[in-house]
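Memo to structure team: turn this sequence into C-alpha cells by end of day. - J.P.
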Amino acid sequence: EPLELGARVKELRLSQKLTLEEVSQLTGLARSTLSKIENEQISPTFSAVNKLAKGLNIDIPQLFTRPVKAESNGSGRRDITRKGEGTPHPTVTYEHELLASTLTRKKMIPFKTTVRTHSWDEYEDWVRHDGEEFLYVLSGRIMLYTEFYEPIELTVGDSAYYDCEMGHALVSLSDEDAEVLWVTA
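Reply from structure team:
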C-alpha cells in the first residue's frame, strides 16, 4: 500500500512521545511546517527530510518505509530495487527515486534523480545537509554548482564526491532532464 509521508512523520513523532513543538526544536523546522507535512499539505524538501531524520534520530529511508522486524547481527542483508520501482520523492528541482528503501539503519542512502531544473535561478538557496555525497551522471549533461568551487560541467560517466554541508546544486544542461545516481553517507 502507498505510504503517506505525513502520516509516517506523525507516526514516528508519536512513537517517540514528542509534540510538534519538541520536534520543531529538534529539527529546526517551524511547527507550522511540521503540521503541514503531517497533514499532507506540503511535500518536504530534501533539506527538510534530512532535518527530520537527524532530529528524530532515524535514517532517511525510515521516513519512507514501515518498520521491519529487527534484523540479526549477521552480514546477509540485501535489498533489490527493480527499474522504476524505487520510492518516489519529488521536489521542485529534482525527481528523486529512493533505492534500497526497505533496509533500515543503512550507512549510505542511494537514489536515482532526474534533474528537472535547467537554470541556477530556479533555486532559492544552496542545498545543504549532513554527510558526504557521491554523484554519478547516468544521462545528459549537468552543471555541478558548489559553494567553494567554480561550477563544473559533468557528462555521462563523470562523477563527483563532496561534502554535503557545503552548498551544492545541480542544473541540467541538456535539452532533456539529466539523470544522476546519488549515494549519500
